[in-house]
Fold each of these.
Amino acid sequence: MKGWEEDRALAKALNEIEKGDPPLWLPEERRSNASDSWVIGVTGSPGVGKSTLVGGLVDLLLSEEHEVGVLAVDPTSPFSHGAFLGDRIRMQQNSLHPNLFIRSVGSHDCVGGLSESIFDMVCAMEAYQKKYIIIETVGAGQSDLDIMYIADCILLVLSPGSGDEVQIYKAGIMEIADIYAINKSDLPGIEKMVRDIQELLMAEHSNEPWKRKLICTQALRKKGIQDLWASIQDHQRIMRQSEKANRKRELRDRKHLEAILQQKIKQRLEQVPKDLYPSFHEHMATCMDTWYAKISREGEKV
Amino acid sequence: MDRRIRVLVGKPGLDGHDRGAKVIARSLRDAGMEVIYTGLRQTPEMIVRAALQEGVDVIGLSILSGAHLRLCERIIGLLREHQQDLPVFVGGIIPQEDIKLLKEMGIIEVFGPGTPTIQVIDKIREVVAV
């Protein structure tokens, strides 16, 4: 059966990445394919319909014979370090399609809505010639923004009834979207939400080549998915024409390097024997006392 | 970095009751495992492909429909065909006389109703540690 053989190799690479042991061939192998790939980040609050929307997009992409990879991130428990990864459930229709690879990922210790190994995982998908790579973040809060460092296109999924227009003007996640998808657009409150976001978009005076778009969808009924896909393609074309796409990739490489360094530092810290900590705490306490004393002395002088 | 034990919890066949599967999935999560839940009404092909893509260490199947012999035979067959020698557990309503048949087929363990979840957790840890 076509597809299964490659799946096994890609799954093995992803397992090695999760073990903190990325295959060394990855960066080179990837470079030759990376220029063809397009990474779509799908983010938004829990329950707005990200997975269902991704499922709809996947079906459309497969019908156009693209190679598709999905990385679906769900939260890891801060208590047990376990996870319940349930995004696959919404992506069933083509789960046996040879051109589709879905991988569920726990967020582990990462706080930005993704997982620390996500950069390596995207590289692995590129090395296995996935043309469209869709990353679904955890149900995101206003400042879960890491997706902006990795995706070429960011899709923010919203749904009616999630606050008044003040929420729309807040900084953070609302700013990073390239495309807003208002899902569950059959629910009450949709007209107002569309109006508010249109106002937000009209008030924008940027010199960016891409003007942000708003699409209404009903993922469960497969409505609006075609429009969404058309917008994603428009965005891709404009970003590539304007060289902006290249600059985003440079940013991604830099962030990838940072992530590798952070992981290395973390691994080193984990190697510090635990019995060193008590003396370390004592040392810290002394330092803090000295600092606070110094600050208050300086304060008295003024 | 320690990789967590990854478990695929699957519901093959046509029964539409996944309370048990969810209870198990949650207990495994609380025991520090990463659980991928497939949802209801999966074919053996869907389960094996998901297990392969997800790179899991163990598969747990929940079956209440009575079709456990056919479903497990097919799943074990597909796993072998794709050289995925993964341990498979079964939970659900399984008649006593079929447990032996399932084990002969290659199913590691069968957990009936009322099994303490710690027993499932311990067994998974034991099998994965080998």
Amino acid sequence: MKILTTVKRVTDPDMKVKIKPDQSGVVTEGVEYKMNSFDEYGVEEAIAIKEEHGGEVVAVSIGPSQSTKELRTAMAMGADRAILVETDADLDSDAVARVLTEIVQREEPDVILMGKQSVDSDRSQAAQLLASYLDWPQATFAYDVEVADGWATVGREVDGGTSTKRIRLPGIITADLRLNEPRYASLPGIMKAKRKPLETLTPDDLGVDIAPRVNVLKFEAPEEREAGEILEDVDELVDRLKNEANVI
Amino acid sequence: MANVLVVAEHLDGALRKVTRSVITFARDAAELTGGDVDVLLLGSDVDAVAEELAQYGVSRVLYANDSAYANYLAENYAPAIAAAAEETDAAIVCAPASTTGKDLLPRVAASLEAGMVSDAISVSDDDGLKFRRPLWAGNVITTVEVVTPVKVVSVRTTDFDAAEPSGDATPVESFDPGVAPSETAEFVSFDQVKSERPELTDAEVVVAGGRGLRSGENFEMIMDLADTLGGAVGASRAAVDSGYAPNDWQIGQTGKVVAPQLYFAVAISGAIQHLAGMKGSQNIVAINTDPDAPIFQVSDYGLVADAFEAVPELTEKLQKLVD
Ligand SMILES: Cc1cc2nc3c(=O)[nH]c(=O)nc-3n(C[C@H](O)[C@H](O)[C@H](O)COP(=O)(O)OP(=O)(O)OC[C@H]3O[C@@H](n4cnc5c(N)ncnc54)[C@H](O)[C@@H]3O)c2cc1C
Ligand SMILES: Nc1ncnc2c1ncn2[C@@H]1O[C@H](COP(=O)(O)O)[C@@H](O)[C@H]1O
């Protein structure tokens, strides 16, 4: 079984982002980066599938040269090799999906594990777009994955409860947070990852035009809420809710 | 090509309220494009939903009534929506940013060679259509434009009022997308969390509990407070991860987005990812033992108190008022 897993380099979700004064983007100086949280769950699941069924795990990232760090992390966790499609451009999910379409045509994986959304751009589009371009089935927001007999049975987290879907492979699965516990990269894992193959390509090498379909024109901070009051006790809270906020 | 197509969402044979918010978004958009608002309903014997959709003063209601649409599958729904977009000359195709909308719309966008905006909170015309959307867990709002002729939009429904019925009924047209069902995807089951309480995204009051509650049993007091006010129950991710609450209750960047009249954050610290899902609420009450908890930075009313004492007392006193 050949498993492809995607890894995006994103700003650390625990840091507060700052917007540039000219509203053209966010401040990148002094910012920490890490692997997109949802992709950690995707990489873990890819490795777990390989451990059960045998095969190979290939990690792919599209982004700046520094993304080799996140790819090495994926290899330290257990991915066998990695591909970086290097670009400094800001990509929309559609460009990501078009680049991945080319990678899939080269690699011909049986299953692709991705994150359910990037925690920086919060779009949740790339996997579904890719599935559509490949005319493959998809199972998004997975909390449970069973692979057997050329099919994947996937438990999905959906509004109102959970849902189960079967997709015939090749197919695409996106990871939700309760899918598994991503393993930490062990020290021997980290050492081994340094020697694992990492191929670097460019969108040009793949013949993909990465011009976005969605242009971002302006970045702004949301309206901040003002901190309210700390009240004395429950009686005061009840009184304010009734007589000030008029919500009771 | 200036029309706006709304993809309706339904559950248990009833229209989901989130669709009515999308109709409001669609009206805003159609006013700018100079087109009409049309609605597409996919389902199997959901005539009551079609009748309801006819009440909102839209131009056309297309109803694809087919057993192939009895259960939602992106692989079957997306090509049908693309066909409807062509049938209605849609410039914009929109649906709620629900889990269904998120799963479905990118596939529609790919079929229509359209760019897609996720979680739109506004649409305007300023030298072409512009949309605003939150990202980075709500810490940034961007203004974006879509360069393709057709634009696909998932709508953050908490930012739009639910459309009200307008009087004249639109005739319901039956629509055959002419698409063969997928052979590579199968629906197996939907396990609905049944509840007497209102849906989280629709509720006027939401009472949410966090990791500080320390157990699932202790969530009872959250439910009691919610029931006193006819509200819904929510949770932080830490509470869900700890197994105190079902995943369907999670509020935040990666859970649901709510904007009720009144939100109670009980034993929730107020991480940015949680705030992303609730800071649009009209009134926020925070109950936390830690006076420095970040939740107090966004709350209108704060109580530095032990939830185990304050919540039962609050429930009792509110119950007396309500009775
Ligand atoms: C990529 C990513 C996505 C995420 N998405 C979400 C999301 O969608 N939603 C979400 O909620 N989180 C999300 N998180 C997690 C988030 O960062 C926080 O970890 C989480 O919100 C913390 O939950 P909490 O406030 O319940 O727990 P804690 O931070 O542990 O806070 C518990 C609080 O309870 C208080 N407390 C303790 N005992 C009592 C008592 N007896 N009475 C009153 N107060 C008490 C404490 O003072 C403390 O403030 C995400 C994180 C990441 C990295
Ligand atoms: N630049 C990228 N490189 C690698 N994977 C990506 C990239 N952008 C998005 N993805 C993958 O697609 C998923 C969804 O991304 P998005 O559509 O941006 O929310 C992410 O969780 C990643 O797995």
